[in-house]
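Morning run. Coffee first, then this:
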Amino acid sequence: MWPKNEAAAKKRFGLEMFANIRLSRARDIPFLRRIYRRSFGDGLKSEDLLFRDLYREDNCYVLTRFGTPAAMAFALPATIRGGEREWRGLYLYAVATHPRWRHRGYSSRLIERIHADAQAGGMDFALLVPATDELFGFYARLGYEKIGQICRYEYAPAAPLLPEPPLAATPVSGERYGQARELRLDGENHLVWREELLVYQSKMLTLFKGGFYLLLEEGREIGCAAVSWSGGVLDVQEILVPPEKLTGALTALAIHHGAGLARARLEAGRGEDIGLRTQALAVICAPPALRADLSDLYVALVMD
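And here it is:
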């Protein structure tokens, strides 16, 4: 059984009678775009991509006031894999309430409904990445616990010539990246990316002059990375290479993009080995036994 959400339960009878929770409809899109724009401000291109390539009526929940959406949340099918075990669940994305209607418990009630539907459908978990650090406390009140520990690493290539053989970064499709990622994470508990979400993520990264890359040494694949570019800084959302190849791989990515600084998310263990502090990237809501099994869950690549 999923954990009880006592805070949300106390609000159950306080929700206004004119509010309703349901799956979205195509005619809701103008209102959903407005909520997204006011909540995230990612730019029109990102917004267009979301509602053109990812949105479907059956993967987006809305809370309406007198029939008009006031809050929204995407609930995307997700899988966690660990060795020969797999768990089915949901990846929650773009959870937002229009600023005018915040602090009324709308997002809490929306998430509670998604949890109820997920449990009824035999799903094992719900996972999401809070948009800000302040939101970790909000999700804790809804039954979520921190997970997906990472370290943040800043690296500035010191010189173009390295003592080890030079590495190369070559762009690849989302599908090809997913294959390389699964190879690198084989045997670890990790969030699996479905092909359609990898395709969407590839387009999103491209909007920010980045993308998915394989890292090659003398033509041999040694790892993979997902990057975007912002203000002269290369944001390495995920990099999966042998520890001894990390600086070479970051240098190859920086040279490819003409960047003077790379900011990378590292797996917790690797970051701790070089003296970095760990922090949670995501939160998960799941039965206690599963939460214990997934205490070491690797997430890193997320839709942010």
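The longest strand covers residues 68-82. Good start to the day.
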